[in-house]
Structures are given as C-alpha cells and as structure tokens.
C-alpha cells in the first residue's frame, strides 16, 4: 500500500512530465546540467528514469546494463535516506538493486545498479579507478552547495572527459555526467563544462511571507539565547497559526536535542481547549533531524502526522535542500549554521556557528511554499540581516584546508591543483596516508603507531574520533550532573591523564563487557556510536593490514614507556595543533598564530589547567571563546623539531607571565590587551 502511494506520488512530481526528454538528453550528451526547485524529484527520480531507460534498451546496450548509475551527495544522511526511499519505490531491499555507500558504511552488493554515495566516496573510487569503469552515468547532485569534494569531482570529470583517449581507456562505453543543482545559477556551470546543455524542470512555488523579529540582534550569538527564542517562536506558531507543519532550523545535534527537550516540556502544558487558535489542531509531534541520527528515526520525519497532530521537525541545514519534508507550512529560522571554516587567525579549520547567508535564508524560507502559501519566522532583526549575513555562502573550497584534497589530487597525478601549481612529489608516506579515509593528522599518527608496532593504541582512538560524540550529556540538570560524574569516574578508572587515553579506555572497556549496551547506558555513553566505532576500527585495521603486507612498510624502534610511546605517536600527527599554557586557564596555540584558547569543559583535563604546560589537541570549537577539544599533555621536546614555526613564538614572554600566580582580573586584562593587539593585525575572518 505504502509503495503504491509512493509510486502515485512520484507521478505527481514536476520532473515526471520530462522523463522521456531527460532520458534522451543524457543519451545525447557527455555532460548535462539539470536544475529545478528543491522537491521537484531530481534526486529520487532521475536515477530511476535512467535505470529504466537502460533496462528497456538493454538489447542494444547490453554493456550499459551491467554498469552502475552513481549519484553523489555532499551529506551522508542524504545519501542514506534517499537510497532508502528509492529502494522502496523500486520494490527492492536496500543494498540490492539500490544501495548506498558513505564513509565506513558500504551498503551495496554485486547487484547494485543505482548507487547513492557521498561525494567523498566517489573521489576515493576515482583514486583507484580514474575512468570510473563501473559506471555508465555519474550524477553529481547538490552542485549548488559547492562542497569541496563535489567541486573537485567536477574538475576531475571535466578533465577526464575532455581528453577522449583518457576517457575511453579501460571503458567499454563512454561515461555520462549529469550535474544537478537547485539554484538557477546554472549558466556558470554550463560554461565551466564547455557549454553543455542545461535542462530546467519548470515548477511552481507559492508565496512565503517572511517576518523578522527583534529577539536576536548582531550581538546575540550565544547558542542558549537563540535556542530559547526558537522554541518560543515555534510554540507561538503552534498555538496561534492554522494547521500545517513546522520546520525549525538550528545548527547541530546538541542544540537540536536541547530544543526538542524544551519543546516537549512546554508542549505538555498546552490546554487544547483554550490555548490553540485552530481547533483542528490537537497535539504536537516533535521530531529532531540531524546528520548522525539513526535512520529508523529519520524515517518518521517523512511520514504524515496522525490526523489533528501538527508535526514540528527541528533540523540542521540538511532540511534546506538535501531532504524535502512534505506538509511544511511554517519555518522558524534561527539564522545560524554550523560550518567548517579555515580560520586564518588560528590557522586551522574550525567548526564554527556562523550567521547564514541571505541566499541561504531565502532557501530556508522557500521550504514553506512548496504546496501552498507559507510563512517564515526569522528570529533575528533586520539589523542582523544587514550587518551579519553575507549575500552568498562562500564555497567550501575557499574556506577550508585543502591538505587532504591536494594529497589525493597529487596521487592522481594532478599537479596543477590550484592557480599555483603544487610542487613536490608525493612521498611513500603520502601514498600510504591517502589510503585512509581519515583527516591527515590522525592518519599520520596512526601510521607512526603502526610503524612502532603499537597500532592497537591508535586504531580505537582513530575510530572513536570518526563517529558521532560518544559521551551523552542529558538536557536535564540533575541528569547532567550524574552523567558528568560517571564520565569523571571513567577517566579516573582509566588512569587516563588525557582525552585520547580516555577514548581508548572507553572503547576497550565496552568491548570487554559482557553486556555492552547496558554498560553504555549505565555510563552515559552512546551505544550506537560505540557500535559504529567498533565497525570503523575493524575497517581501519583491514586497510592497515593490507598496507603492512607490502614490502616497504616502514618500521621503527622505540625505547620508552607506553604512555610516552602513545603520546609521541600522537605528536607526529598533531604537531600543528600544539598549545602552551600562558596564564591562568588560557592557552596559546604554538603554530605561529598564537591564538588564545581554553580547554573545553568536556575534557578530562578541564579544571586541571594549572598542572599543564604543553598540550596537543584534536580540534577546535568556537563559541564565545575558542575551545580546544580532545586534549593531551606533551613535552616540548617531542614537538620542537616537527614544527619550524614553533621557534618563532615568543615563548619567553609567555612563560614569564605563566609561572606567576595571577588573579582573574589580571588574566582578563591581559587577555583583552592581547586580543586588541591581534585584532589590529587580524583579517575579515575574525568577525
Ligand atoms: P529534489 O532532489 O528535486 O529536491 P527529491 O527527489 O529529493 O527532490 O524529492 C522528491 C519528493 O520525494 C519530495 O516530495 C520528497 O518529500 C519525497 N521524498 C524524498 N525522500 C523521501 C523519503 N525518504 N520518504 C518519503 N518521501 C521522500
Ligand atoms: Mg535533491
């Protein structure tokens, strides 16, 4: 019944009328750009049309038939969710004819002909097979998002297809590339791809009225402030607006969970006899939606709510273009998004919460006008719009570190990766590194450990850092205290003097437990996340074993104790992420940028700063301050030769202040002075 409905629905999508034309256009062109409003059916339908086309003409095109159709997505959740939906529409179980592949999760078989995947996965496939000989068609979806990997894929595929010799080498039939985009800025794309045709799916949208509010001004960037406001507005909409679902935009998992908790609590006290404007509305169904959510929970998002119930989805930006939720009539826009940015002040990529761009705000609002007129409630003021929001979102390629991508490109023999050709050959180590789907620093540390025969220390850590946050911190204050206490106990039990050993210890303890899921529950640990970590560890171990079988895998010797061994391996990968305590609880990064950072409260080392001197850290988080997360104390000796710029930092000046006992007031003064010093030399990114 459900699938019948799905089929019926898919015939109502705007793309359906253009099925034959699209099938023909892909046949006729090497490159094709397809554009259309979000929700018009591009992602779910076009791959099916192409598959059917190939099936029908399989007598003529037997070769095509044995090949796959690959569709890339910038986000893993989108790849998984859409694959699920399409497998339903095609009446097959997921992983058979229709499957997906995302990092550390391959749900495909030999039978898979329609394969949804992240753009990162396709890039890895190109590394092993530059002409993508398994595919008849490759669809790069969500090109308007300008994700780093999609941009790189566009460049690579253009290069491959433009030299016929290269393109046909190792292929039986020519590859077709379709680029799909939700915005109309497709001319640029077409020009980039040699003037290829652009197919526009006509569609109609309904007007959406947008209202600003005065709640959030240019200075209110605290998460707790806008989360509260968003909750208030969503409840107002629920009580005072006519029936229709609500879509709330926030930035990430913890915020979304907090908001949902607050909504549950407040919604309970609504008296539907008196408080609600539309008497047909008799209840509120609150659903979170974020990247690392279990997929069975995600399914609920798409189901229509029971009669009389209003659905309220609290989502990250994933609901802006990647996933379309039917029935949404009201948008509550926080105005913020979490974004990976290369921060020139700190000299590193940082996951930051930043104001969205104006074009993004329009896109978010548009989600309310798919099937009828809608309303968008912006919780920010017109001044915020004017002063804080840029016109467009800067493409990822212009704002994040290119280290991993350049290594990949160079391994593919592409040396003119940017306007400036990149000199230098890839070393043996680089060739080994590129095999791992991990950030370069972590890979380097892992390989160092392997060469010293202690990969068992690093493999679990690498796995734990590759899954969602494993520590649960409930919203309720009492529970929060209890969780914090349990986590502290875990740290003490582990004898762990740092956050990396903490991760290792949690991994090992849980693995050794007879009842791992109960153990997790008891210790406020995400069982689901740990289960993924177990699987990731196995996969990383397989890659490593394969590489170790090679003749020239490097081996070294180490004389020292285990704790030192572990931390020194970390140093080889994290030598760019070094900080030294300067004054009070303030640390100063030591890569030449000298930013002031604090240890994040989630760290086992939080509140023990006084005993620390030099540390390394896994990543940075910027809120009102810059925090370092997953921290480990080290010795200066271990990094001094690894980072040339370390010597340029005026260690003397810092250390003279650091060793004295100072009052909080003095610290504050010193910090302000330092900040002012740096502001003058800062860049636009400091904002
Ligand atoms: P586009 O790619 O053009 O934005 P999609 O193909 O993603 O459009 O969506 C087309 C329709 O399919 C939308 O109405 C959307 O709600 C529906 N849809 C997509 N995924 C699912 C799903 N997992 N469950 C139910 N409906 C879905
Ligand atoms: Mg889409």
From TrEMBL:
Catalytic activity: ATP + H2O = ADP + phosphate + H(+)
Lineage: Eukaryota, Metazoa, Chordata, Craniata, Vertebrata
Xref: PROSITE patterns: DEAH_ATP_HELICASE (PS00690), HELICASE_ATP_BIND_1 (PS51192), HELICASE_CTER (PS51194)
Occurrences of domain Helicase ATP-binding (ranges): 23-202
SUPFAM superfamilies documented for this protein: P-loop containing nucleoside triphosphate hydrolases
Keywords annotated in UniProt: ATP-binding, Helicase, Hydrolase, mRNA processing, Nucleotide-binding
One BP annotation, GO: mRNA processing
Helicase C-terminal domain sequence ranges: 234-413
Family classification: Belongs to the DEAD box helicase family. DEAH subfamily.
UniProt GO molecular function: 3'-5' RNA helicase activity; ATP binding; hydrolase activity; RNA binding
Superkingdom in the source lineage: Eukaryota
Class of the enzyme per the UniProt entry, highest EC level: hydrolase
EC number of this enzyme: 3.6.4.13
SMART domains linked to this entry: DEXDc, HA2, HELICc
The protein's name in its UniProt record: RNA helicase
């Amino acid at each position: 019944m459900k699938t019948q409905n799905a089929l019926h629905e898919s015939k109502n999508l705007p793309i359906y009328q253009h099925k034959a034309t699209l099938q023909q256009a892909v046949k006729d062109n090497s490159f094709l750009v397809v554009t259309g409003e979000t929700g018009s059916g591009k992602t779910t339908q076009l791959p099916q049309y192409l598959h059917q086309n190939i099936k029908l003409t399989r007598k003529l095109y037997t070769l095509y038939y044995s090949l796959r159709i690959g569709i890339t997505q910038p986000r893993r959740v989108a790849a998984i969710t859409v694959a699920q939906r399409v497998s339903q529409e095609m009446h097959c179980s997921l992983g058979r004819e229709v499957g997906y592949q995302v990092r550390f999760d391959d749900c495909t078989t030999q039978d898979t002909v329609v394969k949804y995947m992240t753009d990162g996965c396709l890039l890895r496939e190109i590394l092993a097979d530059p002409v993508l000989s398994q595919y008849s068609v490759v669809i790069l979806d969500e090109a308007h998002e300008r994700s780093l990997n999609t941009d790189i894929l566009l460049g690579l595929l253009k290069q491959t297809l433009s030299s016929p010799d290269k393109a046909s080498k190792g292929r039986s039939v020519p590859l077709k590339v379709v680029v799909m985009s939700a915005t109309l800025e497709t001319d640029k794309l077409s020009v980039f791809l040699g003037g290829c045709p652009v197919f526009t799916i006509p569609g109609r949208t309904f007007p959406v009225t947008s209202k600003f509010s005065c709640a959030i001004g240019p200075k209110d960037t605290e998460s707790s402030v806008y989360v509260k406001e968003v909750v208030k507005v969503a409840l107002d909409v629920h009580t005072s607006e006519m029936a229709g679902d609500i879509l709330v935009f926030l930035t990430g998992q913890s915020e979304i969970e907090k908001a949902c908790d607050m909504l549950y609590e407040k919604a309970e006290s609504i008296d539907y006899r008196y408080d609600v404007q539309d008497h047909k509305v008799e209840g509120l169904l609150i659903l979170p939606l974020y990247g690392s959510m279990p997929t069975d929970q995600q399914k609920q998002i798409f189901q229509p709510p029971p009669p009389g119930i209003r659905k309220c989805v609290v989502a990250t930006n994933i609901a802006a273009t990647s996933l379309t939720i039917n029935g949404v009539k009201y948008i509550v826009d926080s105005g913020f998004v979490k974004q990976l940015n290369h921060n020139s002040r700190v000299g590193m990529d940082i996951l930051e919460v930043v104001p969205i761009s104006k074009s993004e705000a329009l896109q978010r609002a548009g989600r309310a006008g798919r099937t009828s007129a809608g309303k968008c409630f912006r919780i920010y003021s017109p001044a915020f719009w004017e002063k804080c929001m840029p016109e467009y979102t800067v493409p990822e390629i212009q704002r994040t570190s290119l280290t991993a991508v350049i290594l990949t490109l160079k391994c593919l023999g592409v040396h003119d990766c940017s306007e400036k050709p990149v000199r230098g050959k890839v070393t043996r180590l680089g060739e080994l590194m590129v095999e791992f789907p991990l950030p370069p620093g972590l890979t380097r540390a892992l390989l160092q450990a392997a060469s010293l025969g202690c990969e068992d220390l690093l493999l679990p850590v690498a796995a734990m850092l590759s899954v969602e946050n494993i520590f649960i911190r409930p919203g309720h204050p009492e529970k929060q205290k209890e969780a914090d206490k349990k986590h502290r106990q875990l740290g003490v039990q582990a004898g762990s003097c740092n956050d990396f050993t903490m991760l290792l210890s949690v991994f090992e303890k849980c693995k050794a437990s007879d009842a791992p899921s109960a153990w997790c529950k008891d210790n406020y640990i995400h069982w689901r996340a740990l289960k993924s970590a177990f699987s990731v560890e196995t996969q990383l171990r397989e890659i490593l074993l394969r590489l170790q079988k090679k003749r020239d895998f490097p081996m070294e010797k180490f004389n020292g104790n285990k704790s030192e061994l572990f931390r020194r391996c970390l140093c080889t990968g994290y030598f760019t992420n070094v900080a030294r305590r300067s004054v009070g609880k303030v640390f100063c990064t030591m890569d030449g940028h000298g930013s002031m950072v604090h240890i994040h409260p989630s760290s086992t080392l939080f509140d023990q700063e006084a005993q620390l001197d030099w540390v390394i850290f896994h990543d940075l988080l910027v809120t009102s301050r810059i925090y370092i997360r997953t921290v480990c104390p080290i010795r200066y000796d271990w990094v001094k030769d690894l980072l040339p710029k370390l010597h340029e930092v005026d260690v003397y000046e810092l250390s003279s202040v650091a060793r004295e006992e100072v009052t909080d007031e003095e610290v504050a003064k010193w910090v302000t002075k330092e900040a002012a010093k740096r502001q003058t030399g800062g860049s636009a990114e400091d904002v």
